[in-house]
Specification:
- The protein has 158 residues and is an alpha+beta fold.
- The chain is built from 4 helices and 7 strands.
């Protein structure tokens, strides 16, 4: 599915909640488990209230959300953790995930220079993150559910 306009990335507000949730659900069960739907929904509800050092963005084209993703910063560890990055299934393989990742990395370098960046993901998304320099530091077979393995990854930012 091609989009009529280029994407624009902006800060998440609750007006995007349902479209983010719909995009998330479009990735179940291949990229997220059914149990994670309520976790994500609760996280979106809490995010707006607990914003300090938490950043979440939406990638939109016109009025259509194509993806979303963010990160949180831990001052004590000087570490950034990626949070709930995803592209709506109907927009996979069109470069939107790459654009959203590059945007988040740019924001991290601007806001938290020198911080390490960590994330956890499945075997399905691991190769995507490896292309951008993330390295697996821990592997947990069936870490999310049966057949859904967990890869803990890190990117050291200079």
């Amino acid at each position: 599915m091609s989009l009529p306009e280029p994407i624009h990335i902006t800060e998440y507000t609750s007006t995007w909640r349902q479209q983010c949730l719909d995009a998330f659900i479009s990735n179940v069960p291949d990229y997220f488990t059914e149990a994670e739907v309520s976790q994500y929904e609760n996280w979106l509800d809490l995010f707006v209230a607990e914003k300090e050092h938490s950043h979440y963005y939406v990638a939109i084209s016109g009025k259509t959300l194509v993806g979303c993703g963010g990160f949180g910063y831990d001052e004590k560890k000087n570490e950034v953790t990626f949070a709930w990055g995803l592209v709506d299934r109907k927009f996979h393989k069109q470069g939107f995930g790459k654009q959203l990742l590059i945007y988040r990395l740019s924001k991290i370098r601007e806001l938290y220079p020198g911080a390490s960046i960590i994330l956890d993901t499945t075997q399905h998304s691991r190769p995507f993150f490896e292309r951008y320099g993330f390295v697996t530091v821990k592997y947990t077979e069936n870490g999310y559910s049966n057949g859904m393995h967990r890869y803990d990854m890190i990117l050291t930012v200079d």
